[in-house]
From TrEMBL:
<keyword id="KW-0472">Membrane</keyword>
<protein>
    <recommendedName>
        <fullName>Alkaline phosphatase</fullName>
        <ecNumber>3.1.3.1</ecNumber>
    </recommendedName>
</protein>
<keyword id="KW-0091">Biomineralization</keyword>
<keyword id="KW-0449">Lipoprotein</keyword>
<keyword id="KW-0597">Phosphoprotein</keyword>
<dbReference type="InterPro" id="IPR001952">
    <property type="entry name" value="Alkaline_phosphatase"/>
</dbReference>
<feature type="binding site">
    <location>
        <position position="265"/>
    </location>
    <ligand>
        <name>Zn(2+)</name>
    </ligand>
</feature>
<keyword id="KW-0862">Zinc</keyword>
<feature type="binding site">
    <location>
        <position position="154"/>
    </location>
    <ligand>
        <name>Mg(2+)</name>
    </ligand>
</feature>
<keyword id="KW-0336">GPI-anchor</keyword>
<dbReference type="GO" id="GO:0098552">
    <property type="term" value="C:side of membrane"/>
</dbReference>
<dbReference type="GO" id="GO:0005886">
    <property type="term" value="C:plasma membrane"/>
</dbReference>
<feature type="active site" description="Phosphoserine intermediate">
    <location>
        <position position="93"/>
    </location>
</feature>
<keyword id="KW-1003">Cell membrane</keyword>
<keyword id="KW-0479">Metal-binding</keyword>
<feature type="binding site">
    <location>
        <position position="156"/>
    </location>
    <ligand>
        <name>Mg(2+)</name>
    </ligand>
</feature>
<feature type="binding site">
    <location>
        <position position="382"/>
    </location>
    <ligand>
        <name>Zn(2+)</name>
    </ligand>
</feature>
Length: 478
């Protein structure tokens, strides 16, 4: 073994374990860690299959070590999926949700339509609508649901049921006259009309369902919660009227949604890392609860993100360092301390008397602290890198390696025997096999559950207290 061997080993460990590598301190990583991060080839195959979650390790010490593991399925290796939109290197939620729900890449700002549709141009929509895995599941006789912590008309959930040249056309009150005259429907109306039998819809955004200026049932005195609909319709009543509330749900559940995840994105846009990570913990708990209600023998669970953020964590912090704490050094340029968590851009950019703010003079552990950013922006931006895909359950092995984001729903549909590609679902072997048990007691191929989280670094439980949620940003990117 040559003199350079420890250097090469440490560098290899850094790559395998997704850890920082310091060429000046190649012995930074203890030898024990090198052994742990190297998974034998024959074991990797098992980890990628339908194994219990404990089988596949998290990237070692992803949050600096010393914290408990999260609830999500483990992702043993591959980076995941490429998130770019057809016209954008750094994507938005509309184009990415269309990719991982409808199976085609799309332009930013558009939902449930192909890349032939130009944002804001209603007249480019007709004939270019694409359907989602929610529709495929519904057509396959399954119950379906949408669960989100954002408004249900937000870009991410709306790609499951709507087709719109603009993600912000929540109600007809947000649409320009030419779009209304061109026959385009607002997103809230499409939620009620496009797929009328969605069994479960949980989320916000009620005001887009009620006539303009109608008082909100929960916040009757507040102007900003009043209804927005110009057509004077009450879509909640319309939805109720279309339902047989005593009916029985058909077997099989396909659920998608932010669960707790959509607000992670909002926390990052505000530059409030604690808010964002608190929401990530809530998503983690929701995924854990879903895991306890289902079995990996008959349920494919997929956890992924629509896109990343310019959010980072560094500074050679020691094991056990508080995630919201300081790096154990000062800048060797401005001689000031810095936090381990930082943003590439956003509202956390702060100069005091012509210099970078000294973070030790402020409460950087506060729930609303805005981590320092290199470039000032009112809202922090998304990131353009790949995001992780965590999968477990039947055919979880289909989701490994680096893929395009729009591959995800096709793999899930294949596993669930829904959608157009079902040639593998019949045959003598399939007929002889016992029918998997459904979550709801019926016979189904597989139940499905997909959650999304707007950070790609879903990690361990974090030692954070409950913090007040950031206000939901106005229409726009998200
Ligand atoms: Zn966003």
């Amino acid at each position: 073994m040559g003199a350079r061997a420890p250097f090469r080993q440490a560098r290899a460990a850094a790559v395998l374990g997704n850890r920082p590598f310091c060429p000046k301190r190649p012995s930074f990583f203890p030898k024990k860690l090198l052994i742990k991060t190297k998974i034998p080839e024959k074991e990797r195959g098992a980890l990628l299959g339908a194994e219990p979650w404990r089988a596949a390790p998290l990237p070692p010490a992803f949050w600096g070590g010393g914290h408990r593991r999260g609830e999500g399925p483990r992702r043993p290796g591959g980076p995941g999926v490429r998130t770019y939109n057809t016209n954008a290197q750094v994507p938005d939620s509309a184009g990415t949700a269309t990719a991982y729900l409808c199976g085609v890449k799309a332009n930013e700002g558009t939902v449930g339509v192909s890349a032939g549709v130009t944002r804001d141009q209603c007249n480019t929509t007709k004939g270019r609508e694409v359907t989602s895995i929610l529709r495929w599941a519904k057509d396959g006789g399954k119950s379906v649901g949408i669960v989100t912590t954002t408004r249900v008309t937000h870009a991410t959930p709306s790609a499951a049921y709507a087709h719109s040249a603009n993600r912000d056309w929540y109600s007809d009150g947000e649409m320009p006259p030419d779009a209304l005259e061109g026959g385009c429907k607002d997103i809230a109306r499409q939620l009620v009309e496009n797929i009328p039998d969605i069994e479960v819809i949980l989320g916000g955004g009620r005001k887009y369902m009620f006539p303009k200026n109608a008082s909100d049932v929960e916040y009757p005195g507040e102007e900003r919660h009043r209804g927005t609909r110009l057509d004077r319709r009450d879509l909640v009543q319309a939805w109720r009227d279309s339902k047989d509330i005593n009916g029985v749900m058909p077997p099989g559940v396909m659920m998608m949604g932010g669960l707790a995840g959509g607000r992670i994105d909002h926390g990052h846009h505000e530059g409030k890392a604690k808010q964002a990570l608190h929401e990530a913990v809530e998503l983690d708990r929701a995924v854990g609860l879903a895991a306890r209600l289902t079995s990996p023998r008959d349920t494919l669970t997929v956890v992924t993100a629509d896109h990343s953020h310019v959010f980072t964590f560094g500074g050679y912090t020691p094991r056990g360092n508080p995630i919201f704490g300081l790096a154990p050094m000062q800048s060797d340029v401005d001689r000031k301390p810095f936090t381990a968590i930082l943003y590439g851009n956003g509202p956390g950019y702060k100069m005091v008397a012509g210099e970078r703010e000294n973070v030790s003079t402020v409460d950087f552990a506060h729930a609303n602290y805005q981590a320092q950013a290199a470039v000032p922006l009112r809202q922090e931006t998304h990131g353009g890198e790949d995001v992780a895909v965590f999968a477990k359950g039947p055919m979880a092995h289909l989701l490994h390696g680096v893929r395009e984001q729009n591959y995800i729903p096709h793999a899930m549909a294949y596993a669930a025997c829904i959608g157009p590609n079902r040639a593998h679902c019949g045959g003598a072997a399939a007929a002889a096999a016992p029918a998997p048990r459904s979550l709801l007691g019926g016979d189904v191929e597989h139940d499905l559950l997909v959650a999304e989280v707007a950070v790609h670094r879903l990690g361990a439980r974090l030692p954070v207290r409950h913090v007040q949620a950031a206000p939901e940003p106005a229409a726009g990117r998200g």
